[in-house]
Amino acid sequence: MITGIDHIAIAVSDLQAAIKRFAEDLNLPFLHQETVTQASTETAFFAPLPVKVELIHPHQDQGPVAKFLATRGKGGLHHLCLSSDNLLEDIQNLKNKGYVFLNEIPQTGAHNTQVVWLHPKYFDGLLIEIAQPLPAH
């Protein structure tokens, strides 16, 4: 079941400058930075807030975030991530309602999660990610 908003992702053209602005100028607590190879992104998370803020930047200038930045010519809101406590059940429920996913098989996401992506045509152009934490090792 969808349990809430996990994070809001903002595509940025300069990750280090954006981290500095969010951490120093907005005084948001910086959580961590990581590379998500499968998504070709560099990510930086800020928490604890009621909703995490994620800055995303293309890893090695490749992948969907690179295309997003090139198409728009600038950064901005990239996606909304919803939390799930049963990702496979949510996938099936949404498929039964006619939704189409960009990937129906969960992929590895940032901060130890499995994720799927709903096609943005169903949400007025907004890309929706659904994430479920993986069990701790």
Key phrases:
single chain, alpha+beta, 137 residues, 2,3-Dihydroxybiphenyl 1,2-Dioxygenase, domain 1, eight-stranded mixed sheet
Number of strands: 8
| Residue runs with pLDDT of under 50 for 5 or more positions | none
Principal-axes geometry comes out as globular
List the strand order in the largest sheet. Answer: 2-3-4-1-5-8-7-6
What structural category do the secondary elements indicate? alpha+beta
Number of helices: 3
Q: Write out the CATH superfamily name.
A: 2,3-Dihydroxybiphenyl 1,2-Dioxygenase, domain 1
The CATH topology assignment is 2,3-Dihydroxybiphenyl 1,2-Dioxygenase, domain 1
Integer count of domains: 1
What can be said about this structure in brief?
This protein has 137 residues and is an alpha+beta fold. The chain has helices at 15-25, 64-72, 87-96, and strands at residues 2-11, 30-36, 41-46, 52-58, 76-84, 101-109, 113-118, 127-133. The chain has one domain: 2,3-Dihydroxybiphenyl 1,2-Dioxygenase, domain 1 (Roll), CATH 3.10.180.
Task: Give a description of the structure.
This protein has 137 residues and is of the alpha+beta class. The protein has one domain: 2,3-Dihydroxybiphenyl 1,2-Dioxygenase, domain 1. Helix content is 22%, strand content 45%. The chain has three helices and eight strands. It has an eight-stranded mixed sheet with strand order 2-3-4-1-5-8-7-6. The two termini are 23 Å apart. The model has no long low-confidence stretch (mean pLDDT 91).
